[in-house]
Amino acid sequence: MAMLIALYGTPDDAVAFDQYYFQTHVPIAKRVPGLRGYQVTRGPVLSTSGPSPWYLIATLTFDSMQAIQSAIASPEGQATAADLANFATGGVELLFGDTASI
Fold this sequence. Notes:
The chain is built from three helices and six strands, in the order βαββββααβ. By secondary structure, it is α+β, with helices and mostly antiparallel strands.
């Protein structure tokens, strides 16, 4: 398995972010080919030292790194990436890598 993690910074307007993210962006992202799972944090994202700079963390799972690369390159992946500018006013950092059960 492999995962893509989207770290969303605190938006200018949390209510507008939530509405757009869940009603518009998630349905777009769920059309990405090869997507196996989609999880998001709910409520404050904390660190061991208190609040973190992240408002929401989304974890998308795929079969492999190749599947992530294909998904990103697909028209649906490109549409998902282009949509970020419509709501991610706090910025977003995308990370991806292979996973292993240990």
